[in-house]
Write a structure and sequence with these properties.
about 45% strand, DNA Polymerase III, Chain A, domain 2, 7 helices, alpha+beta, about 20% helix, single chain
């Protein structure tokens, strides 16, 4: 039996933190449930999709010890519909959970907590490290948009998490573009690499804070654990060999231009209105001190934007997927960006001037 009395605000916070990984439809019904357990004056909510597990809790006095599983989204929607400061009582017995608040009463079906597939914590040799939450959130935010989505090359459906000495490097690629970001750890560690699944990365970005409070990481051979702010995320590591990103990042591109990020993004956004909806192509024509941005579609419609830039390199007419360029521009928070190119058939490198900790490589396309 589970008996819990608390305010809606106390329970809704940790429940929201775990429900992000709960799918609405599952072949295993219990995976749509959240494990609710009361122990030693603390209520914990645990959710999993068998690849990632998130635990979040809150201290609540007087709760009877016990555990049960209940539909995560239904409980979440019920609590969210109630005033945040209202008292709520949860009582579970005989395969049912009754939720009471004021004159409201909800009767939910439950499943046994013993059947909940909790992830087994890895006991192999592990590496531990820590860095500020905002640093990890910032680094992951600079690369997550370049992850593949359901690619048959499963190792691309995530982010490479690599520790080398005093530096953490995170890299994502979908085979058409690659994003790289680095953060200093403040201490030296042995080298270790792990590929984090897509869902783990997205949940970390959503849950990590913007302050200097630490996130503690423990990396094993097949599992990684993140602990921060009363939240614990345990994730499987994607098996496979991540591409050698060092060979993908171009070195020595001789044609370089530095532009205002906002101005370039606005021009690309306007031109994209008339881009081909399928290939999303854009031509960027570089001539001395000028850039023309050209998009056209199958209806013979065309948009052209002209920018005055400081450029004295080779004349280049190069095509890109406009969405790939906008992804990078929308996730970087610098005022200006630099773009370096070899020729119309080689990859372009986007960076922040004076900052070697962010690199974005985008392949050209024929238009």
């Amino acid at each position: 039996m589970v008996k819990i009395k608390a305010t809606v605000g106390q329970l809704l916070g940790p429940l929201q933190q775990v429900t992000g990984i709960v799918e609405r439809r599952h072949t295993l019904p219990i995976l749509s449930n959240v494990l609710v357990q009361s122990h030693a004056g603390r209520i914990e909510f645990i959710a999993t999709d068998l690849e990632v597990q998130i635990t979040a809790g809150v201290a609540v006095e007087g709760a009877a010890e016990g555990s049960v599983t209940v539909a995560a989204r239904k409980l979440h929607d019920i609590l969210r519909s109630l005033p945040e400061d209202s008292e709520v009582a949860l009582e579970a017995k005989d395969n049912r959970m009754v939720v009471r608040a004021g004159k409201s009463r909800f009767n939910l079906q439950t499943l046994a907590s013993a059947d909940f597939p909790r992830m087994v914590e890895s006991k192999d040799a592990s590496r531990s490290l820590a860095l500020p939450q905002r640093s990890l959130k910032h680094a992951l935010g600079l690369v997550q948009f370049a992850m593949a989505v359901q690619d048959i090359r499963y190792y691309l459906n995530g982010v490479l998490f690599a520790v080398d000495g005093d530096t953490l490097r995170v890299v994502a690629t979908d085979g058409h573009r690659l994003s790289y970001a680095a953060e200093k750890l403040g201490a030296t560690h042995e080298g270790v690499e792990a590929i984090l699944p897509r869902k783990t990365v997205l949940e970390l970005i959503k849950l990590l804070g913007d302050g200097d409070e630490p996130v503690n990481m423990v990396i094993g051979s097949n599992q990684v654990r993140f602990s921060f702010g009363g939240i614990e995320i345990v994730s499987k590591i994607v098996e496979g060999k991540f591409p050698d990103y060092g060979k993908v990042i171009p070195v020595g591109n001789r044609n370089r231009v530095e532009v205002d990020r906002h101005v370039l993004a606005q021009s690309l956004n306007r031109a994209s209105i008339l881009s081909n909806e399928k290939i999303r192509g854009v031509r960027m024509v570089f001539t001395k001190d000028a850039l023309s941005i050209i998009c056209s579609n199958n209806d013979q419609e065309e948009a052209e934007e002209s920018l005055a830039i400081a450029y004295d390199g080779d004349a280049i007419d190069i095509g890109f997927n406009i969405s790939y360029l906008l992804d990078a521009l929308n996730h970087v928070d610098a005022e200006r960006i630099s773009m370096s190119m070899g020729d119309a058939n080689s990859s372009a490198l986007v960076q922040i001037p004076g900052n070697d900790d962010f690199k974005y490589v985008v392949m050209p396309m024929r238009i």
